[in-house]
Amino acid sequence: MKSINSPIALNNLNHWFGSGEARFQALHDINLEIEQGKLTVLMGPSGSGKTTLLTIMGCLRETQDGSARLLGTELKGASDKVKTLLRRRLGFIFQAHNLHESLTAQQNVRMGLDVHGQGEKNAYDLAAEHVLGLVGLADRISYLPSNLSGGQKQRVAIARAVVGNPDVIFADEPTAALDKESGLAVVKMLKRMAAARGTTTVMVTHDNRILEMVDRIITLEDGRVVGDIRQNAA
Predict the structure, then answer these.
(1) Confidence (pLDDT) at 188
(2) Mean pLDDT, 10 residues at a time, over the chain (234 residues)?
(3) What is the CATH code of the structural domain delimited by 1-89+167-234?
(4) Euclidean distance between CA atoms 200 and 6, whole angstroms
(5) How many CB atoms within 10 Å of residue 134?
């Protein structure tokens, strides 16, 4: 189990877009701590700041004002080198699956291990095959993305994000392209990782079908936290 109790801590976080008269505030005074080993979802209407907040936490967007700590490291003012090292400890799942069209499903997933640089390289293919089996694609490991459905591509992207055993997984609508059964299977896998490895997941979602399985629901509206519900307490 990983040992960071609050892998993400945000204090008085604000964020703006644009400049001059077009400048607007996307996040207002966000104060949150995300617990280790929990599956936390961010919900809210379009434009509420969910993805902006997710990308700041994942050090994909600059921290402008306030404090954002990720895995014990302050992101505001952090160097590119520090942020690159941090990203190697993270897994990312985006709405666009971002697969390499010239690589098979197994090769795409293997890239997650190449990035993390963990384990023996001759075991990478076996690890990729194993995780593809967990997301129901054991019979598709040699398929190119062009021969996969949209939902299957998303499952490959999910496998790629988790194969390196990241400390934190950031997911933007990971179940949107999946049917209910596949979506629930993905959430169950993330929950198993949390229980076995202490992996923390932060997920943006509009998928009400999975909410009963998550540990915490944070609701944003107009860039402000307006709801924070913890559930499924042990």
Answers:
(1) 87
(2) 72 95 95 95 95 95 96 95 93 86 94 69 85 92 94 90 92 86 85 88 92 94 96 66
(3) 3.40.50.300
(4) 9
(5) 19
At 171, give phi and psi (nearest 5°): -130, 130
> What is the 3-state secondary structure of the chain?
CCCCCCCEEEEEEEEEECCHHHCEEEEEEEEEEECCCCEEEEECCCCCCHHHHHHHHCCCCCCCEEEEEECCEECCCCCHHHHHHHHCCEEEECCCCCCCCCCCHHHHHHHHHHHHCCCCHHHHHHHHHHHHHHCCCHHHCCCCHHHCCHHHHHHHHHHHHHCCCCCEEEEECCCCCCCHHHHHHHHHHHHHHHHHHCCEEEEECCCHHHHHHCCEEEEEECCEEEEEEECCCC
Ordered by start, the domain boundaries in the chain are 1-89+167-234, 97-166
Nearest to 54 by CA among 35, 73, 41: 41
Pairing mode, if any, of strands 168-172 and 200-204?
Answer: parallel
pLDDT of 38 reads 93
Within its chain, how far is the Cα of 141 from the centroid? 23
